[in-house]
Amino acid sequence: MSTVAASAGEGVTQAPSAKRLSLGAAARIFARYGSPRIMAVAALATLAARIPLGHWSLGDLAVAGGILAVEPFVEWLIHVNLLHFKPRQVFGRRVDPLFAKRHRMHHRDPRNIPLVFVPLPVLAGFLAVLFLIAWFAFPTRYLSVTALATFTWFFFGYEWTHFLIHSPYVPRTPLFRAVWRAHILHHYKNEKYWFGVTSPIADHVLRTHPAKESVESSPTARTLGVDDEFELLRVPA
Length: 237
Known about the structure:
There is one protein chain. By secondary structure, this protein is mainly alpha-helical. The protein has a domain at 22-172. The protein is 54% helix and 4% strand. The protein has eight helices and four strands, in the order ββαααββααααα. A two-stranded antiparallel sheet has the order 1-2. The longest helix is centred in the N-terminal third of the chain and has 26 residues, at 58-83. It is globular and about 55 Å long. The two termini are 17 Å apart.
């Protein structure tokens, strides 16, 4: 598997590897894991539910387009406020959600593929939230199902993109290489910047996409400032 090197005086590069994945090989690995399978089923099911309903309108286009427009900012907010949530004491009890703990594990070991994926309990809760938003935020059932299909397909795309970034797959297009490079900088250069995974749009707008040379390497990029002692980083798929 390829490695990524980053240090205070060096750039972020992907070292040559004898085994570089094709997209087909990457997809076969991706399909072995539970989270991508569940997301794929959800995405296909919502699309299969929407197509027979018919009654297509400009409203469907507006709903899908609006969701895709705000998703980079939602992704940014979730990453900053939830995934980087630090444990704290509330009424004498330690609050450390699973999604935050697993994300710290992911930062500790970014090439550990099982840690790349959304944990199944978190995935179940997130899909439930998306269903509730889609069902109650739109005036017709047609638009609700359109929204749900858009949500699930984007979520599936997020998981696929995140997996590719952390896999041995080598970016072949300038666009994906830019996305890949920004996320690698987040992990190996400074965790306070480059929060986007599928798109750098929110980072550019919210000024968290600086030039690499203008940012100091962070000593807490791998720990997120929390002194965890994980017993096992190689979690099962």
